[in-house]
Design goal:
The structure is a homodimer.
Chain A (H helix, E strand, L loop, with lengths): L15 H20 L3 E2 L5 E3 H4 L4 H6 L3 E3 L10 H6 L1 H8 E5 L4 H10 L8 E10 L11 E10 L5 H16 L5 E7 H10 L6 H8 L2 H15 L4 H11 L5 H11 L4 H19 L7 E3 L10 E10 L8 E6 L13 E6 L1 H10 L13 E3 L4 H16 L4 E3 L6 H10 L4 E4 L2 H6 L2 E5 L5 E4 L1 H8 L1
Parallel strand pairs in A: 1-5, 7-8, 12-13, 12-14
Antiparallel strand pairs in A: 2-4, 3-4, 5-6, 6-11, 7-9, 9-10, 10-11, 14-15, 15-16
């Protein structure tokens, strides 16, 4: 009996066209990572659950895909376990889960290989991760992450290099319409301190983060609700009104944060990052110091940055920051680092929407040789051998068939040239080469053909 | 509390050195696939269990990794289900599994996309698969498969192209010491018929497959046990004694199989495959027609082939064959095909053992700039910008540190050059370039440096 097959919710196949585009994206990003001295790493899809749980908060734990133990998985359970319900029986029937991000497996790798790794360790990792989230537009249960991190140094050169990587990657992708927001957690702490909200720092951040959505008045109202004084609110208003280029913004902010050591530290680090970037020959013209930048993740402790398209609504397409103590939970202290994550799916959608993918696919078949009968086929195979010897991606239609069928095949595969091989051609050694884009047809010898296509 | 992290049994991390080598392997194979007109495909790690189960036999079903439903997975179960045991409760708490191979997901993809796919469809797929097998040397629970298939045509050109791909891939990898065994299931059927064992074909194959291990006498004994007559055994002995080059073997076999239509068909197809290969400009000098080749998988119906190293003991490193009705189980009949699978892990081990991986890693950092203090660091960053503008993979040591520490870093990362940047160098614009392999040091200007390394 045949069955109608389907895909699990929130997962996708990537057919040839998507794959060509994804490979173009991945190889572009990889080439820049490598140029900056980052080394590749891959970790397994499955991790032991004790590596994964407790690292992403309660919500994250619930979104982990858990793998059922193989064999008689119930044999470590009792009917009491069953009666106690899903949550309590899980750990007895499942020991492994699918990885939720690339950061925790990376931390595990560093902790396990601490003696072999060359610190500071620069690694990149491009692999799928899995989250049992409710699928919706742009949110998948299986999706690729594309991360680069440098661990084992506090040098702000790292931040500058990651920002330089952003500039180079998007330049190579011919994508110009984006902005990089840059700040430091320490600036935010300084602002909180200047507003007298240090004790409520995390709620202060959460409220400030809503500025774009709810506006300044509402933000002030909520801040007042958590005990920020009128004087504090006035200071905040002044700070949020700061405008100018990056140097000016940082200068003006330091006038406001003069009394908060952490704030001044954040300003100095931001300035130093920008200075390093200039020395690296980067214009930093897409970078805007954004004093309200908070980034959701609470583990960031220093510089933070995020990239958004400016002409289309797509959300954050790339982001990252500095964090403390990556591997502490795995028994290796003192390893802090800084990272960046390229949001592959959103970058894909962005390039797609802006029509920025290359139209000529250098990876795909360049020419199809026709196949009308056994004699022409034998003849075509010898030509095919010569084309491939020149590394020209080429095919023969594998069966004798009507021209129309072979043309349809070339069309469907977007093959740009078709070489006609009939009895006249075999006799004269001169073949009709059809350009499938223009429809033009011209006569070529094999040598001319090889020259033209290689 | 910190925990000692570990990896799930049978899974591996791939650190930088392994990754460089794996990427070299994958990109070599991919480039040949593309040259032959194969297009990339990726399918999700998770498939619905109804897609996977029943496709790999009972043993395969047991080796599937099953993913626990998310949320309150017990809510579709009763305590009777629990009492009935693991096997019967599985389908109620798990709907998805990790893919077991690339063939079934490929079949599902073709069935689901039958209207968009250009038939004959040539696709390659390089992705991990998962099997809950007992881990042992060379056998992993998560491992990559690397497959190319052509579906939707019976043309033997496809077989010839896959064999040409084998020749090109191993040539590109500079690996010469291998042999390709080639035969057809139909030849085996012919032999069985000639021996009067057609009714017991599958047991006949199983026994014949043991020839290498148990020897001819034992094989004959076992065949006698399933009812093969003395006359049949004599015929078999004659057939197994056939020697010579491929043309001779096929000719001599056809004298023996003259009365079996299927056998003659197999001989004709084998000969035609070799003829096509010659037309494609391939020598086929590694190919040996092997009349006893059976290949374990019962779904092969036509040509079969496998590749083994000749100078080391590694087993089959690449194999494939023609099969019928790939997608029938998913409601799409008449799609047969032929494929090849490169065994990445074994090929990796083979190249490793024979020391065939390239020693100069063109993907990794080529030069490290030293960092002795803030002034030298600022100076170094401007040089770094110029190196990267020329696409030279390069790094600065991110912190001021003792020379020894920086040299150790370069050594550990196998960076071949180190540029010394001290006050004298900054003054004169002439820098010491140290070759880390030879230990030599020479004086270069920035222009000379850029020329030398690009």
């Amino acid at each position: 009996m045949s069955q109608k097959p389907s895909l699990p919710k929130g997962t996708r196949d990537f057919g040839p066209i998507q794959m060509y585009r994804r490979e173009y994206l991945f190889s572009t990003i990889k080439s820049v990572f490598k140029k900056y001295g980052f080394m590749p790493l891959e970790t397994p899809a499955m991790e032991n659950l004790n590596v994964l749980t407790g690292k992403y908060g309660d919500e994250g734990d619930q979104l982990l895909f858990k793998v059922l133990n193989s064999g008689d998985f119930l044999n470590k359970t009792t009917s009491e376990d069953y009666e106690a319900g899903s949550k309590s029986i899980t750990s007895k029937i499942s020991e492994k889960g699918l990885k939720y991000d690339l950061t925790v497996p990376f931390a595990r790798y560093v902790a396990m290989n601490r003696n072999d790794v060359a610190f500071p360790f620069k690694r990149y990792q491009i692999q799928p991760v899995w989250r049992a989230d409710r699928p919706q537009k742009g949110r998948y249960r299986e999706f690729y992450q594309c991360d680069a991190d440098i661990v084992g140094t506090d040098s702000l050169i790292c931040e500058a290099e990651l920002l330089a990587i952003v500039e180079e990657v998007f330049e190579k992708l011919n994508f110009e319409d984006y902005q990089v927001s840059l700040s430091s957690r320490k600036i935010l702490e300084g602002i909180a301190e200047a507003c007298g909200a240090s004790d409520e720092f995390s709620r202060f951040c959460t409220i400030l983060d809503k500025l774009d959505k709810i506006g300044l008045d509402k933000v002030k109202e909520e801040l007042s609700g958590i005990g920020v004084s009128d004087k504090g609110l006035t200071t905040l208003t002044t700070i949020l009104a700061i405008a100018g280029n990056n140097d000016q913004v940082l200068k003006r902010l330091s006038d406001q944060l003069g009394n908060t050591q952490v704030g001044l530290e954040g300003i100095r680090e931001t300035q130093e990052t920008l200075d390093h970037l200039g020395r690296l020959g980067k214009t930093a013209k897409k970078i805007k110091v954004d004093l309200t930048l908070a980034r959701g993740l609470s583990y960031y402790t220093g510089m933070i940055y995020e990239v958004k398209p400016t002409t289309i609504s797509m959300g954050t397409i790339t982001a990252g920051g500095r964090y403390d103590n990556l591997t502490g939970v795995f028994g290796l202290d003192g390893v802090s680092g800084v990272g960046i994550s390229f949001g592959i799916d959103r970058i894909y959608d962005t390039l797609n929407e802006l029509d920025l993918f290359p139209t000529d696919n250098t990876q795909a078949t360049k020419i199809l040789l026709t196949n009308f009968d056994d004699i022409a086929q034998a003849h075509a195979l010898t030509i095919l051998g010569k084309l491939r010897e020149k590394d020209i991606p080429s095919e023969i239609y594998p069966e004798s068939a009507k021209l129309k069928k072979q043309m349809t095949y070339a069309d469907k595969k977007s093959i740009p040239y078709v070489l006609m091989i009939g009895s006249r051609e075999m006799e004269t050694g001169i073949y009709s080469l059809k350009n499938m884009t223009s429809g033009e047809q011209k006569e070529v010898s094999i040598d001319q053909l090889l020259n033209e296509l290689s």
